[in-house]
């Protein structure tokens, strides 16, 4: 405690706040794990052309075959004519999920929930450090979560 004269000005205490950086990413995954992680450059938004370009990247050979069921919400890039034409060309079926549905999608529950809990409170010096942490974390989540999901799905199929 310090003594001050009553007429001396009050010292201001500045609060240091960390700025938050939002990262836009497209994550494609199935029961075997993350197929593709596409992180957009800072300030870039996803549109139908970008989304179709991401879908065209084949990280796992033989992935695009007839009978693929894709779950995504009805956001503009997902419901644009260009995207619908792409999905029709590859014979993909859409399993709809409303953008503002109170139900969690599997991605929210198995991918983004654990990711947010892991990254909470972390600070990164550079964007590339954040991207590397995202890639590493998705690899870890793949090993842990999807094994559990696969076992659970197999058990559910046997009980049905």
Automatic annotation (TrEMBL):
An example molecular function term from Gene Ontology annotations: nucleic acid binding
Taxonomy, superkingdom: Eukaryota
Pfam families: Transposase_1 (PF01359)
Official protein name in the record: Histone-lysine N-methyltransferase SETMAR
Organism: Elysia marginata
């Amino acid at each position: 405690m310090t003594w001050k004269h009553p007429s001396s000005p009050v010292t201001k205490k500045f609060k240091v706040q960390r700025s938050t950086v939002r990262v836009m990413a497209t994550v494609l995954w199935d029961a075997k794990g993350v197929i593709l992680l596409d992180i957009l450059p800072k300030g870039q938004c996803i549109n139908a052309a970008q989304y179709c370009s991401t879908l065209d990247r084949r990280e796992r050979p033989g992935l695009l075959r007839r009978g693929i069921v894709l779950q995504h919400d009805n956001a503009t890039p997902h419901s644009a004519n260009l995207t619908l034409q792409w999905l029709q060309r590859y014979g993909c079926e859409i399993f709809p999920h409303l953008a503002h549905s109170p139900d969690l999608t599997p991605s929210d529950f198995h991918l983004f929930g654990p990711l947010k809990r892991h990254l909470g409170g972390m600070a990164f010096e550079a964007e590339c450090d954040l991207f590397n942490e995202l890639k590493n974390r998705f690899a870890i989540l793949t090993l842990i979560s999807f094994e559990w999901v696969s076992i659970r799905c197999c058990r559910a199929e046997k009980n049905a």
